[in-house]
Amino acid sequence: MRELCVVPEAASHQDGGCDEARADTRTSAATASATSLPSGSSRSRTDFDIPKIIAEKIRSKSFFWSAELIPGTSPHLQALLEQSLKDIANHAHNAPSFVSVTWHESHLKEIKVGGSTRLQHPALELSKYLQQKFGIPALLHLSAGNLKRTQVVRILEGCIDSGITNILALRG
């Protein structure tokens, strides 16, 4: 299996590659200024940096937690999701540090908009909603094993447009 390094600092490390860049990122994240937990939709995109949030919580020995949500694609799942979102809203003072959002390839839809085609997925919509409505960083799972390269590119462009920068890319 190949490893793809997406740590921005890797470009500056000619010989050390990903491992050296990751070590530098962990060090700089651990010494970074405090990143507060979500307090509403007023967070900037830089506040959604999950590795920095975790590093700060560990450095300050603060309690933190995360949750994983499944987009509501059936009436039962939609009801569970809505209850989970109500619980998060009711406990905003103790909100999760971030929320993982699962991805199911079968839920990807192509929508015709004018002369172009747009990709839509409930996980992307839920991730965007969590960040915009609750100010909670979202970690979008992206199972890309059976997707075409053009689809992955369009999905990632949608992530950028939505402010989703934390992506757990999976092959299958």
From TrEMBL:
Q: Cofactors per UniProt?
A: FAD
**Under which pathway is this protein filed?**
One-carbon metabolism; tetrahydrofolate interconversion
Q: Which InterPro entries match?
A: FAD-linked_oxidoreductase-like (IPR029041), Mehydrof_redctse-like (IPR003171)
> Pfam families attached here?
MTHFR
- GO CC field: cytosol
Q: GO molecular function, one example?
A: FAD binding
Note whether Flavoprotein occurs among the keywords.
Answer: yes
Low complexity compositional bias, start-end: 26-43
Superkingdom of origin: Eukaryota
Region called Disordered, residue ranges: 9-45
- List UniProt keywords, sorted A-Z: FAD, Flavoprotein, Oxidoreductase
One GO biological process term:
methionine biosynthetic process
Q: Does the keyword Flavoprotein apply?
A: yes
Sequence similarity: Belongs to the methylenetetrahydrofolate reductase family.
The protein in question is named Uncharacterized protein LOC127752050
Q: Which organism is it from?
A: Frankliniella occidentalis
Gene of this entry: LOC127752050
